[in-house]
Structures are given as structure tokens and as C-alpha cells.
Amino acid sequence: xxxxxxxxxxxxxxxxxxxxxxxxxxxxxxxxxxxxxxxxxxxxxxxxxxxxxxxxxxxxxxxxxxxxxxxxxxxxxxxxxxxxxxxxxxxxxxxxxxxxxxxxxxxxxxxxxxxxxxxxxxxxxxxxxxxxxxxxxxxxxxxxxxxxxxxxxxxxxxxxxxxxxxxxxxxxxxxxxxxxxxxxxxxxxxxxxxxxxxxxxxxxxxxxxxxxxxxxxxxxxxxxxxxxxxxxxxxxxxxxxxxxxxxxxxxxxxxxxxxxxxxxxxxxxxxxxxxxxxxxxxxxxxxxxxxxxxxxxxxxxxxxxxxxxxxxxxxxxxxxxxxxxxxxxxxxxxxxxxxxxxxxxxxxxxxxxxxxxxxxxxxxxxxxxxxxxxxxxxxxxxxxxxxxxxxxxxxxxxxxxxxxxxxxxxxxxxxxxxxxxxxxxxxxxxxxxxxxxxxxxxxxxxxxxxxxxxxxxxxxxxxxxx
Length: 466
Hints:
The protein is an alpha/beta fold and 466 residues long. Helix content is 27%, strand content 24%. The chain has helices at 25-40, 45-66, 68-73, 78-81, 90-94, 101-106, 142-158, 202-212, 221-234, 253-263, 416-427, and strands spanning 123-128, 136-141, 167-171, 176-178, 193-197, 216-219, 243-246, 267-273, 277-282, 289-291, 296-301, 313-320, 331-339, 351-358, 363-364, 370-371, 391-400, 403-410, 435-440, 455-457. A twelve-stranded mixed β-sheet has the order 4-5-3-6-7-8-9-10-14-13-12-11, with helices on both faces. It is globular. The two termini are 41 Å apart.
């Protein structure tokens, strides 16, 4: 157990006062929340669960009283079953129906609270572009933004980041630059931050990184892999780079290895959603993910809606604990994850050992079984670092129950032998009876939110599929 925090320099908001620094009101609130979280993360798991249960009762009671959709769909006697002393009965909560993305999409007005506490601050609207194919809208309060900022500081603190380094960001958005790292770190002295749009050519992105000489790079895992592979091929070093930070897509060992080989740096990841903000942050000691229990109750459920044991993969169902504008209770995020045992680091926060991504990124076979295909593309006669045409992008798409197609972008056409090698490499990671074809394409577009999916199933699951 450790409460060591990085030696960040607080910035004063008062003219003529440098030390001790006096942050502005918003910065003080965020810093206070951050310090509270850093202290209480070391509580025993049962104590964290007990405190979370009290807050869960608060938001469920609020939802039952003020949100039309819940009044219609929840058991009539729910309020009477809420535990005495501010704790929610586990059986009563487990009996609540799950809320789907389609429910949220169709019932935006009915899921809003009619009595948002004024002290939670102004309301704001948000949206998710819907990598599952189901875009949604939602509402949040000012408090939710403060929590997001405090947990951003937690991520920085866990990984002992030097805020005075240069931060480079490659994601969706317009090219931009700022003299600080953003709203979450406004109360500290920081280095500059630069944003490069994800739509820029990867070669130009790498040149941009060389010019900016970042201490930290924040981007999607798939793009980190492309950049690191290209840098290794061309011998491009980023000598000041300390860490690659990723978000938005599942992170696998291939990305970590590529960044280590290209630049000698670690890769750290966060798990978040537009609807809730931070869901889990990667532990700096074990490499697993700690659920952000101050913000959400995260369940990993099996096909019978029972909690998965450690080591078992299931559906991610999330309850926001602090959004009283539009409480999302037992919300099916569309993701799959693996539950984990308590972490040896000593933090009492729950653990996810793996985040597997969207359920639509599962291969479905004719016998109604599902698989998580992982291809582990490495250098080959048709790949990075070879003497032949270099493949710059790959995506595997399931087009039928017994057929997938690997779509690839390359500088030049592959020979029949190279294409056969590529399809054989994919076939080795698929169940028996699934055929593979290949197609060269001009480009593989990212989704509207900038994310990239290595595998996508373009078919509907059989009726008997779990």
C-alpha cells in the first residue's frame, strides 16, 4: 500500500500569490475529490462495497421516484424493499431489469429525471456515436464532469506522469494546440498539448510526432500499433517518449510489444464510455484494470444474469452512481469483459483482468457457439518489415456462419502465394469449418468515433445463440 503522489506543481489562481498556490473553485473541488479517492482506494473490498451500496440506494431511490421509465418497468413495491439504514438489498437490485442501448435510444425523454438536485450543477447533453450500431443520447450534470476530471488525475497519479512534458494526442477532432493538458489538470503547471486528427495519413502522423517530440502519446490501440510498426520499419525513434496511453478499443499484447520494440516504452490503457466516463483504469502494478467504484457499479454477468466468477467472461452491465439527471441503472453497455480476483497491489477496488470489447466483435458459428478471434498478426512475407508489399491495415469480417474475409490495404498487390499465406494465418485462429478469403481494398474506414475494429461480424446470430 502506498499513498505516494507525483511532485506536481499546483497553479495559483490569485494574482501575486505563487506559494502556497490557491487553485480556483473548480480546481479545488476536483483536487479534493481526487485526494479522497486516492485515500479510500486502500480500503478493504468489503468496506468499499459497503460504501458503494449506500450510494447505490440513493440513486435507485431517486430513479424510482423521479424517472418515468423506471416507474413503469420496475416492481411496484421496490421502494418498500430498499434496505433500512441506506443500503440496498442485493436481491432487490439483482431483480431489476437491465436497460438496453435501444431502450436509451428510444426513451430519451422518459429516462430523464423530473427533479434533478440543483446543487449537482448545470445539465449538459452528450451522445455516443454507437460503435455497436446503436447511437444514443444522454444527459449529465456538472458533478459528473468533476468526477471525470478527478479520475483523470487518478490515472496520471497511478502512472507517475510528469505533467510538464509535452502531450501529443491523435484522435477524432480538429488539429489543435494548447499550453496545458486540458481541463482536468488546470490547477497544475503542465507542458503543452497538441492534437492531430485521426484522419491524417499515418506517415504524416509519425512525422508530426517526430516534430513535436512528445513525452506522452495518447491514441487508439490500433493506431499505436500502426505508428509503432511504421516507426520500427523506418528506424524512427522518439527519444523523449515515456509512455503510450490508449483508450477506446481493446488493448492486446501485440500493441504493447510493438511500442516496446519501436520506442522502448510501456503502454497503459483506460476503459471508459461516453455515457459514464471512466469505468476502469489499468493498475500500475498488476496490469489488470481497477473498476472505478466511486463512479459506477460494474457487473460482469453470465447468460443466466448471474455474476461471473474470477476468470470468467461475461456481459458488462453498468450502473452510474452519480448521474441524477439521467440515471442509467443496470445498463447493458454491449461490451464483454473478464472478472478478476482481488489485486495484489492492495487497492480494494474490484478487478477486471481483460476487456474484450463489443459483443458484435465475436465470431458466431452454425452450432450457435461464439468465439473471440485473436489473430496476432506478425511480420510475414506479406507484412511489415518484409521485402514484399507492406500491409498497412487489416480487418477480418465474418460474412457467413462458415466464412470470413480478410480485407487488407497494401502498397502493392500481393502475389497468390503471399495472399495464401495471409489467409492461412487467419484460418489458424478460427474454428474448424470456417473458410477464409482475402480481398485487397483501398482503405478501411474507422467508425464515426475514430475507433477501429480488427474483427467484425456482419451477420445476425442464430436464434439459439447465447
